[in-house]
Amino acid sequence: MGQVFAGVHEATQTPVVLKFLNAEIEAQVPWANLDREIRAQAGLDHPNIVVIVDFGRVNDIEAAASNGKFSLGQAYIVMEKGELGSLERRLAKPVSWLFVKRVLLAVLDGLAHAHARGVIHRDIKPANVIGFENPMRWKLTDFGIAHHAQDGTENQATVVGTPQYMAPEQFMGAAHDFGPPTDLYALGCVAWQMVTGVTPFLEEGLMALANAHSMKELPPLEAKIHIPDGFEAWVKKLLAKSPWERFQFAADAAWELSKLSDLEANTSSSLSLPAPSLHTLGWDEETTTLVSEPPEMLVGVADPTKGPPPPCPFPGDWRRFVMASVNPLFGLSSALFNVRPAELVAREQERDRLWNMIARTSRSKRAHICVLKAPIGRGKTVLAQWFAERLLESGAANVVRVKQSQSPYAAVMEHMSLPGGEQASKVRTLAQRLGIGPEDIRLKWWLEMLDDARVPEAAASYIQAQAKFRPLLFWVDDIEENEEALGVIDKILESQDSTSRPVFILACVDTDGLVARASIESWLRSVEAHPLASVIELAPLTALEVTQVVESLLILDESAKMSLLLRAGTDPTLVTHLVQDWIRNGWLELQKNRVFSLNVDVSTASTSDSSWEERTRSALQALNSTERSCILAAAVLGLNVSKDEWATLLSRLSLTAHGVLVPSLVDAGLAVWSEKGWSFTHPYVREAVFKLSPPPAVRQWHIEAAKMLRDRTDLDALSRLAHHLFEAQEFSAAVRAHDKAAKLSSKRGNLLLACQHTQAYLQILSAFPDREDEALLAKLRFSELTRRRLGYYLAEEEENLQQIIARASEAKWPEVEFHALQTYGDFLTNQRRWDESKAVLNASIRLGEKNGWNLWKSVARLADCHFYAGELQESYDTYVKALDYVETEDNLAWCHFGVGYVLLLQGHHSKAREHLTEAKALYDSQGDPLSAAAVKSSIADLDRYEKRYDVALTKYHECLDVQNQSGRVAPTLHVNIAQTAFAKGDVELGILHANKVLRVLGLEKVDRLYPQIPLLVAAAEGDWKSYERLVKILNEKSKGSVNEFDFADAAEVLARLLEARGDAMRAYEAYQLAGALWKAHGDHGRGVLCELEAERLVMMDPS
């Protein structure tokens, strides 16, 4: 292939491999082909696929620095390095059946992920399966790359793959037959080799191997290790000569393999493996396998011995095989931003609805339709793509997709993937794939009616025939622009009575595109009224969710994140375009902490694209000066232009927009119509309008827009007012507006927006040295808002706070020092450094007393410190003392909240509920939903204690909705939901939210803060090694902890869970632990009840 070097990823110190392609390969294979294939692997994100860290060509600086080792323009790939080497090397040593099974499942898991995204490996072999330690895992590599490294002998340059492992269709070059079964055949060869020591066919030479794989019967399987019954039959299904007689999905093969016995691990194996973790696949015992009866024949009879093996079961829940984005190498090259798939964030309710609908389609074997509606840029296609990929990788359904502006007939023909040539050849191929006789009259009818006549009945008939094997998703993009697809959908729905098939139709609708399309709107109304129809309307993502989209690909520091949201708002499309622009301009720089930061001030940097600028320039030159001023006024208002606001601003500017102005922009491709007016097609169009307009006019137009908004008091108006004042260079007024908007958004619970506004006015103040004290106060507020949003302070905050305290003391700014001490004390509490926190907060109290300032915040935070240190009585007394300094209702609410929660933990639940209810009422009256939700969560804790689990779960979920809308990360709520779900007996919901806690906090923090959650998961899953470790942690953490209530409750839930599993001994120990913890908590009665439960178990089984 070329030169290969070992290296280290600088940001993470992770071992990597650098591969440089040699000139001979590049001479044979165009760079465009290599680039496409490298991108195919780089675009995959799965624990069983090797991560590509970077790729590209050597630039002039790199070539010069290499001292001749690398030439200018030489192609290279950087990928993570497997410490264990290849499976090929591992097979030189003895292996066990358990090892074989788990490696095969790992490869099938990776293949399921790749195949669902249209990537066929084409070169599965032991050399392309790499072993990794910590955790132990086997991963696929070299997707379509290795076959370019052939040495060219015996015509191998024309062959895609390695002959010993190639499927018959690869030898024949039958590209129309390439698909998942092609890779599964190669894996069958690998499986054969793992148990016998050799590949199935040992002929020498390409032609001899081609003949053997295509024509020769398989030799007897002479296994060198102990294998279970059923393995030989399984591997022979992989090695069927026809791709249509093999497993059709990796999930099908994995399901059958997973049912084979594990036997006993062979002690001769020098490697042990943990239990396999199937990330994309998953089933449970309650799932019913969807094995349909053989398809009925119209004419002719198919050979009943032919056809694919039955499909795997339909998974009951998409969550069984969903996984977090892998990205083990934080700080991947920014060049991969457009290549790696973004993680679908939020939309859980919509995902549940889609999955439940297609599950209902599978059970009823009747067609259903879902209309997915949203304006452009809201994520319809992303959600639909996720849905299709989940179905494919789990083997739950086949997919036919009609892309934007594609004919449905072309989509069906593409799905058929037939060879060229005469119709007879196409008929034979199609008959073989569908498992029907070649005389079936539908075959010719489909080909004639789809290719030429475009008859809706033919497309519907083929789709229904495909659904005979397993459910089928018929997905139509932008149906408002595809009237041909409407006819096909109508025919599928009309044929329910005569031909019932599990077809699920997903029709995506751009609501902006429905303007002036009365016929489509009428069709949608009629379809939505169908008894088997559902409608999903997508709400906008929150600011937190939009940043999560970006951060699934590229980790940005807080400053870059805020700059991104300030510029792009919550439009995920605009956010993505902006990050792409930053990457292209070289404005993002990877730091040592593995995150990217901006190296320029993007608020003043130009981001317009030259091609859009030229198109915009051309369009503006065709307009007169008045019309150009009208377009500038629209650009000032934003990317999306409200017709009413635009008219108001034009009136203030004494301008009038003629009726043909916007249509001319639409015709030029620079604007699109929307429900409330119109929008610029792309952010760069708006940027170009500013760039091509005189700066004085831009400033004046922003001033007029600000005047238009100045009398409004709503948050949206305040945010826009601050923006317009800044762009008009009215900096003092902009600071006041940002400050006001920050305080209002914080009070309303929109913490991310509060952070944005605080950072905005902090950036303005930083430009004025004479306002340094104001800037430092803004920094403190930003720090506290970030802590409130994330639930913790960033690690670097300690140094910042210490510097602010020192600077304030030096400059004699006591007010700044006072507030900095309060914030630093809170930081130390957050870090569990109780004594240091008390000292700092007492220093702030002394400084406040000296200057006659209100001490409420310092005293209340001192009470918080006592609380988290487990000093409940001191905390209670200090909260009561804080009441003496209360000035506002939100201060009073904080004190009631603190007193109420202390009483809850002291076991005075009736009084606790009174204080908490009062606190919530005060926060509600102040319009502070985030604080009200925090109190409501505490009231739900009381409901959980009283075993009103459904009531508690409802409240927790309501609080979670508020937290998500605010942009705040909420691990504690997921902890509470998980524990309550386990208590209720809903183990699946408990594990789901436990995993969310783990993703947010990481294993170390979860073990330290919430050990009861992974303990409950370990008990539910029978992971006894983790169980024993976590029981010890729980015992240690529970002594004098503020979490005694949660730990006692969890121990009792644990006991019931173990008893339900039939594990009486562990249940007995858990009841004993729960009894001791309840007594320590002060609830002697409940402790005794748990001890009686333990005695009951002894009486039932004295052993």
UniProtKB/TrEMBL annotation:
It holds the Pfam family Pkinase. Coiled coil: none annotated. Gene3D superfamilies: P-loop containing nucleotide triphosphate hydrolases, Phosphorylase Kinase, domain 1, Tetratricopeptide repeat domain, Transferase(Phosphotransferase) domain 1. GO terms for molecular function: ATP binding; protein serine/threonine kinase activity. Keywords: ATP-binding, Kinase, Nucleotide-binding, Transferase. Transmembrane segments: none annotated. It comes from the Bacteria. Residues 1-260 form the Protein kinase domain. CDD domains: STKc_PknB_like. This is Protein kinase. It comes from Microvenator marinus.
